Amino acid sequence: LIQIRTGHIPLNSYLFRIKKSGTRRCNACWGTNRSTITETVIHYLFECQTYAAERYDMDRALGRHSRDLQGILASLDRIKELLKFVGRTARFKTTLGDAIGDVSHLETEE
Predict the structure, then answer these.
(1) Domain limits at 91?
(2) What is the 3-state secondary structure (H, E, C) of the chain?
């Protein structure tokens, strides 16, 4: 969560800044439509079409807070939905491994 809040997360905009990536662009968007959009936290969470299906589930669960990162981070229930989204996308599997872990336990109704 701290990485999401600060932007110090292994997305290309940050990796480029610390010289661990040769590009800032979103590889998923580049691969599908040659878009040169920068892969930021906001792009990953709210804009990247690669994760539209996962985002749809998050949007439904979060309602009016679905595109408000500060609002999401202000509530434990909304944070759980955010973590489900991150887990479902598997975007950080190669860099963080199982640091996010299995999110299936978050899928159950409480």
Answers:
(1) 2-99
(2) CHHHHHCCCCCHHHHHHCCCCCCCECHHHHHHHCCCCECCHHHHHHHCHHHHHHHHHHHHHHHHHCCCHHHHHCCHHHHHHHHHHHHHHCCCHHHHCCCCCCCHHHCCCC
